[in-house]
Write a structure and sequence with these properties.
By secondary structure, the chain is of the alpha/beta class. It has eight helices and twelve strands.
Length: about 300
């Protein structure tokens, strides 16, 4: 079963929520800048990271990005590793991971000789990714850009957006724009893969047991022995299919809090029917929806599914 990074509760036995398409006003769009900077593995992160990008970067700051590597360490095979690897190999051409983060998947794929580039909105995540690649003496091409603004000089046989990251585009016009940009950046017959989930009642209860209360979400130990704790406070707007989650990070050394960071994530979930229609509207063909990371078609009851569509 897929466990998206955004969910930690297991949802077996719980039915997910299928809501009608949102009709009331959507939350205001984050204003992303169209600039992008390429980051090669052996150069420091630089480029046109304007103050506007910094101001509007919603999440994945330095502590959050470091913590991500603790929650999802290197050298492990993850539940989605084989799924995307197979797709990239079948694509038999260049691939791009959108929202590549710290290279959890990208770096092992490049280490296996696959031609995979990465794109992310967080310079901190890209920096972690670059460092991971450098440790293995690998060259990676990374782009600092919002995926809904995707505009880069290369086209791909495979585009993939792992771990529910696509749901971080919470504004519907931006969702449509992203899918259209993805379509433009695929080579003929290229494929797009996007795993999604619909929160179950158990997910909602676990993320938000009591409205307005912080709960400890994750805890881990850094290489220098410091503890990193992440607290979460979430709100769910079921009618609009939106989750707003606030996170608070604490870095604790010798019993003292030596660092803190906050982040806000807004996630939009899509029903299978809604997302199928969005992909078709963006020009995709042969739209398939499989259960988790399997090859089996998803049933309507599945809350965790992956769309694979062809240009
Ligand atoms: C949950 S992490 C996933 C990282 C990596 N793909 C993985 O599977 O481990 C989500 C990533 O998406 C990035 N992200 C969020 N919104 C984005 C956007 N609009 N465009 C590009 N990247 C985005 C974040 O900075 C973060 O690195």
């Amino acid at each position: 079963m897929i466990r998206s990074v955004f969910r930690t509760a297991f949802s077996s036995g719980n039915s997910c929520m299928h809501f009608a398409r949102a009709t009331s006003p959507l939350p205001s769009a984050l204003k992303f800048v169209r600039d992008f900077a390429t980051v090669s593995s052996n150069k420091p992160l630089k480029g046109r990271i304007t103050p506007t990008v910094r101001k509007n970067m919603p999440s994945y700051g330095p502590v959050s990005s470091e913590a991500y590597g603790i929650w999802f360490p290197e050298g492990k095979k993850y539940e989605d590793s084989d799924f995307f690897e197979r797709l990239i190999i079948e694509g038999n051409g260049p691939a791009l991971e959108l929202g590549c983060g710290d290279g959890r998947l990208l770096v092992p794929y490049v280490a296996k000789g696959l031609d995979v580039d990465g794109l992310d909105l967080s310079p901190h995540m890209l920096d972690m990714c670059r460092k991971r690649a450098e440790k293995k003496r690998l060259k990676v091409s990374l782009y600092l850009q919002a995926m809904q603004d995707l505009l880069i000089p290369r086209k791909y046989k495979t585009l993939f957006v792992p771990y529910g990251s696509f749901m971080l585009i919470s504004n519907l016009p931006e969702v449509k724009k992203a899918l259209s940009r993805f379509h433009d950046h695929l080579l003929p017959k290229g494929k797009l893969a996007i795993p999604l989930f619909i929160p179950t009642e158990a997910d909602i209860h676990q993320a938000a047991p009591k409205e307005g209360e912080w709960r400890l979400r994750r805890e881990g130990t850094r290489a220098d022995g410091a503890t990193i704790r992440c607290y979460e406070k979430a709100r769910f707007d079921k009618n609009n299919q939106i989750e707003n989650a606030d996170y608070k990070y604490e870095v604790i050394q010798a019993g003292q809090i030596v660092g803190t960071e906050t982040e806000d994530l807004t996630l939009r979930w899509h029903t299978q029917g809604q997302f199928h229609a969005l992909l078709k509207d963006a020009g995709f063909e042969n739209v398939q929806c499989v259960r988790d990371y399997s090859q089996e078609p998803a049933s309507e009851k599945d809350c965790e599914f992956t769309f694979v569509a062809t240009k």
